[in-house]
Specification:
The chain is mainly α. The protein is built from eight helices and no strands. It is elongated and about 70 Å long.
Amino acid sequence: MENSDILITEEQNKLAVKQDGWAIQWIEEPSVEIQKLAVEQNGNAIKYIKEPSEELQKLAVNQNGLAIRHIKEPSVEIQKLAIQENSFAIEYIKEPSVEIQKLAIQEKASAIQCIKEPNIEIQKLAVEQNGLVICFIKEPSEELQKLAVEQNSLAIQYINCLLYTSDAADE
């Protein structure tokens, strides 16, 4: 019997992706049902689906917010779902709106480390929730430093480090 004589059934494909969503990468032209089962098992399996529907995108990011990295031009709704599942998904959103940045910070202040050049409003929101995130902010203002220490006195360790670093650079 040659390899070309072996036929994999739809049921075998279903079983494979139910066990491991990544198995979809070896299925030629998977049915919509197979695609759905794959992303329900592993959101990142969306990487192997050509032109996934909005429904599949929702399933993928609900299963794993970081699956957004495999979605080209995700809608605002998909971005929100991804952030709600995992605030660090913002790292994979190209030019996230201020609204999306706020959502990420509200979910987890430390997500600020995944935002390129957050504006002062976003910085302040993050520090108000967790003063220790000051360590992720490049050149924080004095107001932000004060706010960080007021929120969490342990933030002083990062402020003093900033002062020491800038003093050394000035010499």
